[in-house]
Amino acid sequence: MTKTPYVILCSGQSNMARINPEVDTSIAADVQFWRYGVRRHGESAGDGFDSGDKSPGNYAIFYAAAVAKQMPDKQIYVVNISRGATNLLQWLEGTVTEEKENMWNAIVSNVTAALELIPGKDTIDEVIWWGHESDAANKAGTSATAFKDDFLKVINQIDTQSWGGDGSYPILLHKIHPGCNPYAEQINYGIELIALAQPKRISIADATNFNFDDNIHLDGDQKEQAALHALTTKCAGESIPTRAINPNQIINGSFSLEPIEGATDASPKPAHWTPADGTALSIKNGIVTLSAGAIAQNVRGKFKAGSLVTVSMEDLSQNLTITLGDMPALMTAGPDRRQATFLLRKPNRHEIQVSIASEDGKPVTFSKMKFEYGGAYTAYFDETGSAATPQAPPSFFSRLKFRILGE
């Protein structure tokens, strides 16, 4: 029987790149595996295909073997272009660093060369990806929303290649182990956001219940079963369950207005905020424009060392700086909901200051600010359409007023 070629592009960090030569790969004897190693080839192309049973025993070959069993009429080809301990930025076109190769250049070189050796084949058929533990951090530049933005750029880079098939291929993303890094939840939530952005095309696999002796890398003897599990239990983006809404610890995150007492005109002021010299802000229809200065709120709650909290807002026009206690983070602009996540190291157990400052003095607009527990933002409104706020007596709320920093 003549089999139709089916090409899987594999990429990511160490779980996709890691090899276990001692693992038996005879199950993949019918798979064709592209010979490429980042330390040997860098950004250049590899040098041909081998049968899968001669591969160095990494995860990609076992996934391909599972696909081959599921699709007996296909000849499976694997092109694995991965590198451990490498941030996602290394996959963006044009990224240049002295220490590491640009992985996007490596993908282009190798996919192009590999397809030239497959008769009658000029496009890829599937992408699988596993990473990025190295991107988990407390800075908004590597937050869930920024990670989603960058990853969607990589997908678009693939789509617009002649071999990208105009984005007709499916994509499978893998969650990272929750114990690999204190901020792992942030990247896993970013993976959810990526799948939700293209829900009919992108799916998520979770193999983290298998053995990871170091809480980062899948054990070699687990790869065959984990790959089969990923293939058969993957969750399409359109089937991702909705997260339960967390209460908003910020008071008046919708920025309603109230009259200024004793004012000679009808000028309103933001509820729970105190005007002061040096800070210029205005509010219209719930949209805050912060032209200069900074605002802050002392948030009461129960804060534990080692836990994550997330600040988010909508319709952010420019990058701005969010500071939680003494930890600053750059929140990147975007039309959807944006977030910055923080790991509490030695917090005041009962109160944390959250501040907002325009970046480089540029006017910035935003709305629907939320501060919640966990590494992922949840909906600003509950099912009734009301802002999700903590249940507390009025005396508690009265102490949670915004003030101008430096007062």
| Largest sheet features | 8 strands, mixed
Element-level helix/strand string: EHEHEHEHEHEHEHEEEEEEEEEEEEHE
- Counting helices, strands and paired strands, the structural category is alpha+beta
Question: What value does the average pLDDT take?
Answer: 87
Helix-strand layout with pairing:
Layout (H helix, E strand, L loop, with lengths): L3 E9 L1 H4 L14 E3 L3 H4 L7 E3 L7 H12 L3 E9 L20 H14 L9 E5 L13 H16 L11 E4 L9 H14 L4 E4 L17 H11 L1 E2 L20 E3 L8 E3 L9 E5 L2 E6 L1 E7 L7 E7 L5 E5 L2 E5 L6 E6 L7 E8 L5 E10 L20 H4 L4 E3 L3
Parallel strand pairs: 1-4, 1-5, 2-4, 5-6, 6-7
Antiparallel strand pairs: 2-3, 7-8, 9-10, 11-12, 12-19, 13-18, 13-20, 14-17, 14-19, 15-16, 15-18
Question: How would you characterize this protein structure?
Answer:
The longest helix has 16 residues. Helix 3 packs across helix 7 and helix 5 crosses helix 6. The C terminus is likely disordered. 19% of the residues lie in helices and 26% in strands. Strands 3-2-4-1-5-6-7-8 form an 8-stranded mixed β-sheet, with helices on both faces. The protein is elongated. It is built from 8 helices and 20 strands. Strand 11 and strand 12 form a beta hairpin. The protein is an alpha+beta fold. It folds into 2 domains: 236 residues, Rossmann fold (3-Layer(aba) Sandwich), CATH 3.40.50; 148 residues, Jelly Rolls.
Q: Quick summary of this structure?
A:
With 407 residues, the chain is of the alpha+beta class. Helices cover 19% and strands 26% of the residues. The N and C termini lie far apart (79 Å).
